[in-house]
Predict the 3D structure of the following.
Amino acid sequence: MLTDASILFQIATIGIIVALIHTILKQMDKEEIAQFVTLVGFIIVLVIVINRLSELLDQIRSIFLF
Amino acid sequence: MDMIQIVLLGIIATILFILLKDVNVTFAFIILILTSIIMLLFILQRIGFIIDLLNVLGERASIDGVYLKTILQIIGIAYITELGANITKDAGLTSVASKIELAGKILILILAIPIITAVIEAILHFLPSI
């Protein structure tokens, strides 16, 4: 359970850092790189979520005898 | 205490959601999804105990295994449908959520066909043949 809550904090931190980098790069007039950074952060977070989701669906499938 | 853990997880998720909502909406929504996934994972381990109990009781009462299996499958479909529908509804896609719920209902009805047939056959068996 402790590790589970830390995943939430992890994703929140990634989100804040990505938003920070996005703002800084935008101030430096590098719009494309800012968009790219946001995209990369989103992909990293998406991988974490999809791993969790597959774990959940596997468990549902094994418990409910599909 | 498991309940306290669940409640605290919900509160932490709420705070993080409010924090991220103004900064980055996508990440805030991902926190929403992850919270429901974690809570469901946490509670599924407990559901396993109840299902073991149901299996033992069913064997005691010598109920046909097919019926119990069908009911468990229906419960599983209901959980997955709820998860998907709630996540889509939170994102504001109410029409997609209602379609997911419709699909869940139809699939549950299809799974229940053997049970319905058995009930109708039992009723017909009781009726006196004219």
In short: Chain A is about 90% helix and 0% strand. The radius of gyration of chain A is 17 Å. The first helix of chain A runs from residue 2 to 27.
